[in-house]
Amino acid sequence: MIIGTPKEIKNHEYRVGLTPESAGELAAHGHDVLIEKGAGLGIGASDEAYIAAGTRIVDTAEEVFATADMVVKVKEPQAVERAQLREGQILYTYLHLAPDPEQTRDLMASGATCIAYETVTDNTGGLPLLKPMSQVAGRMSVQAGATALEKSHGGRGVLLGGVPGVAPGKVVIIGGGVVGFNAAQMAIGMHADVTILDRNPVTLERLENHFESSAKVIYSTNAVLERLVAGADLVIGAVLIPGASAPKLVTHDMLTTMQDGSVIVDVAIDQGGCFETSKATTHAEPTYVVNGVVHYCVANMPGGVARTSTYALNNVTLPHALKIADKGWQQALRDDPHLANGLNVWNGQITCIPVAQDLKLTHTPLETALKV
Fold first, then answer.
1. Catalytic residue positions?
2. Count of domains for the chain
3. What's the whole-model pTM score?
4. Strand order in 349-350's β-sheet?
5. CA angle 172, 237, 202 (to 5 degrees)
6. Which of 27, 50, 154, 216 lies deepest, with the highest CB count within 10 Å?
7. Are residues 77 and 111 in the same domain?
8. What is the pLDDT of residues 271-306, one digit of tens each?
9. What residue numbers bound the domain in which 331 lies?
10. 3 bridge partner residues
């Protein structure tokens, strides 16, 4: 199979779909691997490193898209990239389609087979290809929030950890999954006053047992959320419904009760965000202010620590890329029902139920794609 990785073109996105080591693994399996010139520079990987790994360097993304049987990326394809996809071509990357009808329409029109990292599952019900980026984003959310709280960045001028004689900042984390857990670890490490909200009794017990007295773990209701948000210095949105748009848990009315200069970090922005006032931002202009509250809603947070993120991502995406390349996508998905859950678009049709439901599109059963 011919496998291609173009340079990422989303604003301040420095990750790359394949590291030299991953590209070398695919080449060692007998596949022809194409890498766009300079694609790995954002993680410190030179073209020479890819050549040494047994891959070919091509001058343009257009050549990658025109030649590759499978395109391996990090972020969802931008409009100029979607226009280059073709019928039967495999796209293997993050997609986050539920809040993005324009991308969804373009992928359907392309006829490409689109496998989304974020809906691949494992035998525990987890999302193993999303997990490492959730870990990164969760940890980064506290760093970003702490910076935004500085007066020079529009915040209240609060140091999260406080100092002797001055109370620490109050951090409220909505959601106790992978993002929330990692955010809590960082906030606790900075000696902030941390509260984690969730509704899953198993999650609440796990968090309570792990953090003990270092964090308050509370069952989330609208009344509790409203009260805690009003007094918070930093609120982190860490809610995920796999494949679907994030629920709008913090309303505009709740926002008006928050203190001027307080900060929200919406890690769920890839799926539309869990704050009613959220809109996607970039690393170039990461924040904006609504009702005196600083909003940080960067849609590709892990791109800011590209080297760590790329290697963490490749650790989990490479085994599936090898399956797809070695067996062909249909056989690979037939053999691995968890990988099959990653199929979102096939032959102009939506095969992911949450995406179809959120965008009010017809759902085609996964079995139909795998029988052809």
1. 96, 270
2. 2
3. 0.91
4. 56-58, 32-36, 2-5, 70-72, 90-93, 113-116, 343-346, 349-350
5. 75
6. 50
7. yes
8. 899 999 999 999 999 999 999 999 999 999 999 999
9. 2-119+306-371
10. 33, 70
